[in-house]
């Protein structure tokens, strides 16, 4: 049986996420974007309300909810501010998702404080010369007794400016290609780990997104994720597959937020003696936009439920990210157009939403990479 309805618990959670976003995020979203600085007070509130550990079991300190509830949270948050949405998504899907592969000791020491609201995590995979080609990672990890010595650099590392826990991917055996990549837990303040300034960006400007220098960083062998070399590529790809559900939900939130703001505007703005919303051209355009957003939302839900059910969700996650990110860009561009000069003004949030939408087609796998995953699952080239 296919269900298109949320449970009572999910509906209540969605309402709570929406009220939180409206009361705590919307009033400061523009200021965070303008100053390009994320509010640490907001981080504390997100932690207090348990939003950093939504899909993790209560036994490990999480909220004990499902992946679909997590997707609902990312959507509601991203309706008001995409920077907050990606901050949550990277922490939950990528950093905590990597620690799903950790040993029991690693989960107790590092995953628990990440999901119970004490700490924030980040995910260091992308490098200046390794983006879509994750196998091109150059950061190295050399065994030295009971430690590993890490050297290299990471770039576009979301949350790095205020993260407590870094997941760093490095090569332990260069002769094995992707099978020679491993993942390491590195704590903030470790000598040789240096976080640079925030990288100036077109969108999600409030998110912390820095370059991370790794110079002779000594990491205990006990911090090798899972306790086994060569599993880093699998860990990264699995975490990213889950992260694409988060980015899909973020994309839906951006698009729906833009529609909501545009609806308020077209009901009040008058041209030629009547409201813009009374013109059939405007009505038909809004109908098209909302239909696209609803379709994207259902694709996100399908991927989230598949992950909850431990099914092969990776192709579904790629589909929802590919389509929802395209929808976010199409919808926000159309909303700016419908609002005319005011849509182009930073006084109204649709301008920010349009800038924020672009990155959803790039990070955690470009649209082109998503097409590779989807066509691969279809065995098109065989």
Automatic annotation (TrEMBL):
Residues 7-117 form the Acyl-CoA dehydrogenase/oxidase N-terminal domain. Keywords: FAD, Flavoprotein, Oxidoreductase. The keyword Aminoacyl-tRNA synthetase does not apply. One of its GO terms (molecular function) is acyl-CoA dehydrogenase activity. Residues 230-376 form the Acyl-CoA dehydrogenase/oxidase C-terminal domain. Residues 122-217 form the Acyl-CoA oxidase/dehydrogenase middle domain. The keyword Transmembrane helix does not apply. It holds the Pfam family Acyl-CoA_dh_N. Transmembrane segments: none annotated. Its cofactor is FAD. Belongs to the acyl-CoA dehydrogenase family. This is Acyl-CoA dehydrogenase.
